[in-house]
Amino acid sequence: EVQQLQKLQEEAKAQNLEFLPSITVMASRFLSRARGDAGQAIMLMQATQNWRLDFFKDGPVCDSDVLEDLKYGIVYFAARDSSLRPTIMVRASRIPQEWYKNKRIDKLIKVLIFCMEYMLRYMVLPGKIENNCLIVDLKGLTMTQVPITALKEIYGVMSKHYIGRVFRFYICNMSSGLRMLTSVVTNVLTDRQKQKLSFVEDVKELRKEFAAHQLEEDLGGTRPILKEFFPFPMQAGPYTAGAEGGPDKAEVAQACEVITREGATGRIWDPKKSKEENTKTEFTPEAYDWFKEKGIRIPADCQKQHEEDLAKIEADKIKNESPKAAEADIENREDEEEEEEEEEE
Hints:
The protein is an alpha/beta fold. The chain folds into three domains: 56 residues; 189 residues, CATH 3.40.525.10; 91 residues, no CATH class. 48% of the residues lie in helices and 8% in strands. The chain is built from 15 helices and five strands. Strands 1-2-3-4-5 form a five-stranded mixed β-sheet. Helix 3 packs across helix 4. The longest helix has 45 residues. It starts with a helix and ends with a helix. The mean pLDDT is 89. Pfam families: CRAL_TRIO (PF00650).
């Protein structure tokens, strides 16, 4: 993989190409999609970069931009699976009819992209939690009501521009009529894409991957059906599959606040650096005190960063004080010389 990355970097340099940090850190994912072909990976990276530059040309999608549309509860985060992967709920039956009538599926895509960008900033930890799941609920939909266009748009955005992020698509509550579409859908998918699709016969099967309190009642869990969807109603652990004890009220929330944006973004492997340098997590300056205040064991990277920050502060202090000390020393010597001259006179 390191050799493939080096070849990809050489190819990009040869073409005099530059990529956004958000694209660069996904280099290995693009290579995987391209089956190791550097040239093909470059093309995929350029396509995604062009898409991002166009979609975000007016700035990032903020919560205020999608707040009203989030209220429908069509797309929202509400759980993590047993491997702590954030999970998006997609409730297709909640898409307003006027969105279809007015051809406003772009609203759905905008909400989805907001969710993904939010996840990449606040819900992942490079090297540990990098993927997500989607639970797609088709309950109450007939063949004629299935939002094929909307689902294709969702799949297209996720598979093309958030490459390698989705671990599994769980398709739930399919009617007998909808099952007839299964072969039609899977026939146009690659082998890799098929591996990510899981058609759930009984929603309680989801407990094989999720703790019961992570799932709403109509999805085989014990959590009441949600009515509010933002801020995202994430549940505390435990996350053990099948766990039925409910959320641990002692768990600490908002740990995302102690990871910097760079720390959440991650980096591609640099063979010139040590394993420690390549895998370290970047914490905020306030992280050390946050961990101490919460009574949580301080991560090694945070401890080291804190010690380095203290050393830098001390070095700056000495540096700033040195000129004053030197000036005072000169003044003292001048005073001593004047006193000696007076004594000689």
